[in-house]
């Protein structure tokens, strides 16, 4: 296990539990307590956790992990979801993408797609507020990239603010692919930051079809900021079958559920 992988896992434990001890981490990861101390010190120096005697605590209940530390979470599930989403995109479409680890995987699949590559240029037009997605796709000849204006958030590389809305108001998109932090019948699609929720809502409102790409850990939960009600979503692409009672609630408002096949 590399140090980056350990740091990912340590941050997940701290985020989920609020506080952890060196002994807990050592047992969970199967590494020495000396290694755990070094990792905790590294994370504390980066102001990602608060170091305590014998362990560490999170920075607060609303703390959001930076994007680079989320990559290990549900990695295979997100790749499977990305493949399924890419199959729903037709050559020549304009696609709005918000930021996040799942939509980053979707962007990579669109960038690798031979089906889109063989289409007349551009194979696909991507409109995004995510700087990392724009950077990765800028080398793909069959992808036309349009980046919104706005001010970047360090946590997620997403541009937020009124300039994003001003850009999106000028476009009519075929499909929005939205990553979320929660999806429930009661609250619809949600995320942890109100600025990102506003941008995602505008991307969806600018599109004729809205696809939510969310792994099973996001289904049935709600987070702080609402993106849109469930009725505004056309398709959910996820990695596991949805519980029957939740699936029934989604079907009532016309949400199609696509379960991605594993590799």
TrEMBL record:
<feature type="domain" description="HTH arsR-type">
    <location>
        <begin position="1"/>
        <end position="82"/>
    </location>
</feature>
<dbReference type="InterPro" id="IPR036390">
    <property type="entry name" value="WH_DNA-bd_sf"/>
</dbReference>
<feature type="domain" description="HTH deoR-type">
    <location>
        <begin position="3"/>
        <end position="58"/>
    </location>
</feature>
<dbReference type="InterPro" id="IPR050313">
    <property type="entry name" value="Carb_Metab_HTH_regulators"/>
</dbReference>
<dbReference type="InterPro" id="IPR018356">
    <property type="entry name" value="Tscrpt_reg_HTH_DeoR_CS"/>
</dbReference>
<keyword id="KW-0804">Transcription</keyword>
<dbReference type="Pfam" id="PF00455">
    <property type="entry name" value="DeoRC"/>
</dbReference>
<dbReference type="InterPro" id="IPR037171">
    <property type="entry name" value="NagB/RpiA_transferase-like"/>
</dbReference>
<dbReference type="GO" id="GO:0003700">
    <property type="term" value="F:DNA-binding transcription factor activity"/>
</dbReference>
<dbReference type="InterPro" id="IPR005471">
    <property type="entry name" value="Tscrpt_reg_IclR_N"/>
</dbReference>
<dbReference type="InterPro" id="IPR001034">
    <property type="entry name" value="DeoR_HTH"/>
</dbReference>
<keyword id="KW-0805">Transcription regulation</keyword>
<keyword id="KW-0238">DNA-binding</keyword>
<protein>
    <submittedName>
        <fullName>Transcriptional regulator</fullName>
    </submittedName>
</protein>
<dbReference type="InterPro" id="IPR014036">
    <property type="entry name" value="DeoR-like_C"/>
</dbReference>
<dbReference type="Pfam" id="PF08220">
    <property type="entry name" value="HTH_DeoR"/>
</dbReference>
<dbReference type="InterPro" id="IPR036388">
    <property type="entry name" value="WH-like_DNA-bd_sf"/>
</dbReference>
<dbReference type="InterPro" id="IPR001845">
    <property type="entry name" value="HTH_ArsR_DNA-bd_dom"/>
</dbReference>
<feature type="domain" description="HTH iclR-type">
    <location>
        <begin position="1"/>
        <end position="61"/>
    </location>
</feature>
<dbReference type="GO" id="GO:0003677">
    <property type="term" value="F:DNA binding"/>
</dbReference>
């Amino acid at each position: 296990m590399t140090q980056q992988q350990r740091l990912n896992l340590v941050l997940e434990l701290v985020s989920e539990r609020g506080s952890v001890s060196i002994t807990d981490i050592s047992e969970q990861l199967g590494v020495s307590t000396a290694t755990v101390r070094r990792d905790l010190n590294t994370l504390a120096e980066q102001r990602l956790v608060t170091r305590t005697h014998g362990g560490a605590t999170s920075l607060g209940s609303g703390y959001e992990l930076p994007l680079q530390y989320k990559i290990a979470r549900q990695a295979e599930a997100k790749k499977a979801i990305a493949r399924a989403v890419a199959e729903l995109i037709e050559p020549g479409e304009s696609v709005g993408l918000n930021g996040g680890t799942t939509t980053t995987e979707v962007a990579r699949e669109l960038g690798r797609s031979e089906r889109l590559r063989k289409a007349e240029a551009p194979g696909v037009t991507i409109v995004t507020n995510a700087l990392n997605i724009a950077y990765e796709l800028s080398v793909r000849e069959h992808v036309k990239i349009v980046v919104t204006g706005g001010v970047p958030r360090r946590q997620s590389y997403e541009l937020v603010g009124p300039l994003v809305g001003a850009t999106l108001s000028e476009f009519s998109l075929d499909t929005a692919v939205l990553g979320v932090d929660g999806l429930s019948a009661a609250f619809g699609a949600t995320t942890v930051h109100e600025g990102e929720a506003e941008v995602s809502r505008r991307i969806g409102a600018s599109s004729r079809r809205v696809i939510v790409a969310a792994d099973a850990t996001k289904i049935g939960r709600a987070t702080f900021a609402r993106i849109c009600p469930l009725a505004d979503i056309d398709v959910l692409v996820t990695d596991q079958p949805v519980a029957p009672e939740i699936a029934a609630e989604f079907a009532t408002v016309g949400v199609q559920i696509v379960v991605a096949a594993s590799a």
